[in-house]
Amino acid sequence: MKVPFLDLQAQYREVKKDVNSALRRIFRRSDFILGEEERLFEREFARYCGRKFGIGVNSGTDALILSLRAMGIGAGDEVIVPAFTFIATASSVSLAGATPVFVDVDEQTLNIDAGRIERALTKKTRAVIPVHLFGQPADMIPLLKIARKHNLKVIEDAAQAHGALYYEGGKGKARGAGRKTGSMGDAGCFSFYPTKNLGGAGDGGMIVLDDERLYQRLIMLRDNGRKSRYEHRIIGYNSRLDTLQAAVLGSKLKRLDAWNDRRRICARMYTDLLQDISGVNVFDESDYARHVYHIYCMRTPDRDGLVGHLKKNGVGVMVHYPIPLHLQEAYRFLGYKRGDFPAAEKAAKEIISLPMHPFLKNSQIRFVVSLIKQYATAGGVHAR
After folding, report:
1. Nearest to 80 by CA among 341, 310, 354, 277
2. Distance between CA 114 and CA 111 in Å, rounded?
3. Nearest Cα to 57, choosing from 292, 294, 252, 220?
4. Is 75 in the same domain as 217?
């Protein structure tokens, strides 16, 4: 049996009627840049996130860069970021002219450890970028308290967490309706890279926020600093979300919650079946979170051997992220060393990402887990 890591063709088969209809409308109008479908999708996605405004941009990375620039963060400033995430979280800080300062992650969630943030603050710190990694919200209440205490901006990197919820009121029914990722900081930044829970047919991104003055500045920044056609108030970027991409995304948005529900069912099945294997550890959903499982990962000390076994047997597994940010060559100049962030380094050595998408079959999940058990009984990880 072949089990692909992701199945975008199955996703397209579900949405192709709506997508093709939307594309025909755009070609008839020929409004390819900042057209009607793009403006509609901005409004719909902002509303979905519980925000007043949405600004479509050309990538999740640009969403972060433009947010930092719009907030006046740049040369001489520092921004707190987690040590374990995709490099764009840190490189966006660098590209805005500021310096990323790394903080270790919580070993159970792999999100930034809010308890370590204050130790990393200096007089130069201007912002914190929590990442809702793999689809699980970061613990925002303690982080937001620290930000308010020290007058810091909070920019949520929600690139992997479209539709995830953060609950502020405890467990069960008492916790209320929850808040969408991207709705809690000064701005929320999303990627629409094709592999995301809400992905386009190419690159794309979105910033969602409530501050109208910041919104107006971002509108100019994403379009060459333009106030009117040939009037440029600031130096900006060419970072617009194409109308064609917006049409694809709008067609998928109405299905996002159902797709996320299916991801959660698949995740529960993985977790239940993997419980029987010693040497394999799964990541539980936090009490405060509704995880949307952009990635379903497990951890084991024998990561490389198990990855090889799964790939040999037709399972599309991946490793996110084998080199933590503070040990990347690109950030050697910051002077960090091995051992500075032990939780991030341990995760980088041990986690495996298993196939996860809304079209994953129960039989495929059972097959993947059976291979893990097979490897365990052959002397790899140890089955109970």
Report:
1. 341
2. 9
3. 220
4. yes
